Amino acid sequence: AAVVSSKQYVLRSILDPIIIEAVSVHDDEIEEAEKKEIAEWFPQDESRQPEGTLVAWRDGGDDQLTMAGILHVLLAIILVNGRVLTDMQLGTYLKRLRLPFGSTIPTNSQLLATKPLTIDALLAQFVRQSYLDKQKTSLATGHGTQKRGRGGGEEGNASFEWKWGTRAIAEISEESIGAFVVDFMDDIEQERESRRADEDGRGHNKGGSTKVAKRKEKLSTAIGRAAGGGLEPYK
Would you call 117 helix, strand, or coil by DSSP? Predict the structure, then answer.
């Protein structure tokens, strides 16, 4: 029998996460070297700013970073809501992110006079790329089976649910998104503690690595509980 290709692929890094984290750490010497290069090669380009890291992430395209950031936030929201979101829930969260259905995502492509990118178009792109899975619910279809939707936003009066797509599971993993949420929430808590310490005149005291580790462990447990079970690693 002939092999039928889905024309889809999975992209995964073979680098150890420790290496990826290391090349993302800011370094003053690298930043100074970048400043000299920018001044020499791009003296008139005010948009170029040094990053101070071994890997220049912005060279991959600011728009790609914007889209990746939105995707990771959406995956995190779906994960902590029991691994599924209704259209109504998604719309509510998008409003909180100031990206309601129909809104335009600010990207550098707008400066190039190209077609503006809307959140609806980006959601449809994530579905096409299998990062998100949009399914019509059984209530909308009138029977027990589910039908997949291929785009974002509303489709008549149908009701949809949003879940992780196969590529998100394979390329990103629930464990990684869980760690992303833990780090984000822990940073917020540390900022709160610093502000309280300043107000009380006690100075900054983060409580040591043991306190941070316990707090992160507690956050990780809470995320797993919110997801409805243990977080899946790479498969």
Answer: coil
Q: Which position has the higher pLDDT, 167 or 140?
A: 167
Quick: pLDDT tens for 55-85: 776 655 557 778 889 999 999 999 999 999 9
Q: How many CB atoms lie within 10 A of CB 6?
A: 6
Closest CA to 90 of 172, 160, 43, 33: 160
Alpha-carbon span 69 to 51, nearest angstrom: 18
Q: Do 32 and 40 meet the contact criterion of CB atoms below 8 Å apart?
A: no
- Residue 73 phi/psi, 5° resolution? -65, -45
Mean pLDDT of 207-211: 71
152 neighbors 124 (Cβ within 8 angstroms): yes
Which residues contact residue 212 at a Cβ distance below 8 angstroms, ignoring those fewer than 6 apart? 186, 190, 206
Ranking 78-82, 138-142, 159-163 by mean pLDDT, the lowest is: 138-142
| pTM assigned to the model | 0.73
